[in-house]
Here is the input.
Amino acid sequence: MPAGDTIYALSSGGLPSGVAVIRVSGPAAFEVCRRLAGDVPAPRQAALRSIRDRNGELLDHGLVLSFVGPHSFTGEDCIELQIHGGRAVVTALLKTLGAFSGCRLAEAGEFSRRAFENGKLDLVEIEGLADLLAAETEMQRRLATEQSRGALSALYMGWRDRLLHARAMIEAEFDFSEEEDIPDSVAATIWTDMGALSHEIKRHLQGYARGEIIRDGFKVVITGPPNAGKSSLMNALAGRDVAIVTEYAGTTRDVLSVDLDLDGFLVKLYDTAGIREASDVVEQEGVRRAAQQIADADLVLHLSAVGDADIQLPSVSVPVRKIGTKADLAPGIVKDYDAVISTQADLGLGDIKTLISNEIKDRVGDGAVSIPSRLRQQEHLSACVEALDEALRSATAPLEVRAEALRRSADWLGRLTGRIDTEMLLGAIFSEFCVGK
Ligand SMILES: Nc1nc2c(ncn2[C@@H]2O[C@H](COP(=O)(O)OP(=O)(O)OP(=O)(O)O)[C@@H](O)[C@H]2O)c(=O)[nH]1
Ligand SMILES: [K+]
Ligand SMILES: [Mg+2]
Here is the structure.
């Protein structure tokens, strides 16, 4: 993709819509604007213009905005055209844009890629931006906002500076050690700071489990014997008939899932086949899949009808809560359960929600969102701290070796924000974007 291209795309959502925003970025953006709208309006000020095709035929009236590079999202000259969001209107304008030489439709993520290449955003910020566009819950939004606005990047760059400073001091020491030793106390201070940094990064890494829950969701698996009322609970929490409910034991075979928003957290709720010794091969497969889901759950809700004597809780390392169902049939029995419900009588559903949301808050806390949330971030930070610990551990090694370990540690932070060695990562990151972003 030649950098000299001017790219354009519909940047607003699906059509038809009240307004459609078309973004144009690149060296020909202003020339295109002059030809379409008669002039280039003053930067960052919306101006109402007639927008015409290349034959002077009126396409639409709309607002035109200009952004002079580098003061634009991509860092290039940019134009935004806000026109009516009718399919034919948008199609006509896109067709007109495509006819200008050097102008072509943007690829997915290409505006953001240019922003990265022009130093407007680093990789962590771009990952945050992708998450912000995908955010469906309040906590996802907060996490992504923090990240896309550079809070994490600033933290990582601060750490990188500390590592590079330490390395420079160490190298100074072995450069001059022949003539005049730098005082022992300076070296001691450096290594004390590096020890503290290692702790800080490890503490930050512990936040990954929380970030992952916020970003990817908290996985709750409903399990229990056949006919316990699992699918009924799933439907009640989802507020719609996701799963088939019948009086026949063994109704659910496949794993079904719905996404819920509980207090701003994404909850991924799974309904599974009732666990029993099944003779039917399809049901056996369902039971096998249920066991698999339970193993990677964050929380298991184990359902059984209240008063049902024979309760076998799954023995797994994830927390299991015991839920009594069909309370309408056996009122008064509440002992031994973490919650008692009746989907038929609409009892206890609020308790289930509270139980799940308390469990999430226990794990995530509800304050700080300056935490890593992607596996890529987690891996780079782990590699960074590993190299740092190597430098700290090898106290008797030659200083060159220890300085080299500090350099590698700093490089991992550089890769994390994309300051170095990024080509191979770009495809993976930008492919998440839709066209127009
Ligand atoms: N009285 C009463 N019946 C219920 C309640 N919840 C579910 N049932 C009934 O219990 C039967 C089984 O419900 P399901 O939701 O299909 O149970 P399940 O655990 O998903 O069953 P399998 O998928 O077959 O393992 C159905 O006939 C439901 O109508 C309840 O709160 N009270
Ligand atoms: K059933
Ligand atoms: Mg079921």
